[in-house]
Amino acid sequence: RSSEPWRDFDRSKVYRADLESALHYLLRVELATHNTLEGEELQTFKDFVTLVAKLYPGGGSVVKLMETLSDWLLSLPLPRIPYQAVLDLVDNKMRISGVFLGAELRWVGCQGSRAGLRGYPCSLWTLFHVLTVQHEATPTALENTGLEGETSPVLQVMRRYIKTFFGCEECGRHFEEAAAVSVEKVQNREDQILWLWNQHNMVNYRLAGSLSDDPLFPKAPWPSPSLCSSCHEEKHGVHVWNHDSVLLFLRQHYGASNMSPMYSM
Ligand code: FAD
Predict the structure, then answer these.
(1) By C-alpha distance, which of 199, 208, 184, 174 is closest to 250?
(2) Considering the domain boundaries, does residue 220 fall inside one?
(3) pLDDT in tens, 51-83
(4) Residue 201 near ligand 1, beta carbon < 6 Å
(5) What is the CATH number of the domain that holds 107?
(6) Does any domain span residue 1?
(7) Does 178 fall in a domain?
(8) Residue 49 CA to chain centroid, in angstroms?
(9) What is the ipTM of this complex?
(10) pTM of the predicted model, to two decimals?
(11) Among 86, 123, 193, 226, who pairs with 22 as Cys (CB 3.0-4.6 Å)?
(12) Can you tell me the distance from the alpha carbon of 83 to that of 41, in angstroms, rounded to the nearest whole number?
């Protein structure tokens, strides 16, 4: 963003500031376009909050806030909730108990070379990659949440979230088409990590060179050879991915120990 100072960052890290900004935007901007939450919308929002409360790595104020929100949503027997009540809870908790979420957007690994590029969609991808990796790393985290029976709970919740709330409708349509075709092939937690990686690359291929492409961050198959050389192989002169290496790389890159607190609150 031209009005903000550039924040130097390392492309081999994941920044907590991006994940916190994602949640800030999601709760205070994206959700605000829905006056009331009810029916499937409400269920989707509850499941999203549960997923983040249980799988967001490293604890801290984000997890506390999402836990509070989750307990509150589950304790309400109401069929519909006004968005304002969600916002009041988020704001009140911040004031009273220091359970807070940054009240500003601070993009780091997701900053764009000018306003309107990168930011929120980048951080949403990042958040869900982190959740797929954390779901594998903490096998019992979703017990007794109602999500434990799903083979790919992170993808299912992501799919419903994107379809219901994500501001980019075209994106939602594409993502839903892809999920409808192949998400049932996902049989375990490793597949879940790799499915999302592969799907993200499909989007990268499609968008390379388009208007939404930031010239400083051109869309390309990811991870690049400089991030992970063993992920790339050549067979009969054709590029192929080494899926074992990709999985190892994703676990490391999106794992809790690779998260940088730099620029976060
Ligand atoms: P992003 O693609 O947002 O990636 C963010 C970061 O994730 C990258 O910087 C990199 O560090 C990492 N990354 C990149 N590729 C992978 C991968 N394969 N696996 C794991 N990590 C990776 N825009 C459209 O114009 N049309 C669409 O149909 C569309 N569909 C979308 C669907 C979803 C579910 C989402 C969340 C976004 C969609 N977008 C779509 C937005 C688009 O994908 C980008 O998020 C946006 O253009 C910003 O791009 P970016 O350069 O920040 O990188």
Answers:
(1) 199
(2) no
(3) 999 999 988 888 888 999 999 999 988 899 999
(4) yes
(5) 1.20.120.310
(6) no
(7) yes
(8) 12
(9) 0.99
(10) 0.97
(11) 123
(12) 12
